[in-house]
Amino acid sequence: xxxxxxxxxxxxxxxxxxxxxxxxxxxxxxxxxxxxxxxxxxxxxxxxxxxxxxxxxxxxxxxxxxxxxxxxxxxxxxxxxxxxxxxxxxxxxxxxxxxxxxxxxxxxxxxxxxxxxxxxxxxxxxxxxxxxxxxxxxxxxxxxxxxxxxxxxxxxxxxxxxxxxxxxxxxxxxxxxxxxxxxxxxxxxxxxxxxxxxxxxxxxxxxxxxxxxxxxxxxxxxxxxxxxxxxxxx
Length: 234
Hints:
six-stranded mixed beta sheet; mainly beta; 12 strands; 2 helices; four-stranded antiparallel beta sheet
């Protein structure tokens, strides 16, 4: 179980962050890791590393307009890939990238080493658990909470490593995503502060657009990265 006590940036005028202290009026996102939270990423000579997923959690208004990111893993936020050889992994979290709508100098929509996201909303992907706390003001209007999760090299029969660029199942080649990122969402109402986010679709396989695709029958292990995601007021 991964616990994220999140900073709702568009709702709070002052942010307080205290490890292991629950402050009055905070909100919590609880992520229950699924059986495929950890995934074997090949290194060399048959050696593989157990990697957790890359993911982002963000807030939109009820019209689907992006408001703020509340958490994103550090590799995505800082272009922190080891020996990426210039591969920016645009297929990693394309829906979140397109919702943000920020285009960087190379024409892609992922943050760069030169222009990373602030530390306040980033962190290493939890392998066991990590907790964030924040003070919230009263929520006055509904909003949509969304999350996107992705593994590298999570190939299956529908998204194989040998798919060719330009094909609908191409996902970045041998070190690409394999199965596309999965997207969760739910609308949070001021008078109902307990909610479970629902799996609503997947992202573009090659990261070329910001659409939501609903053909989830093509996914296998990607659907069990996460079991449940809860939002609740503390």
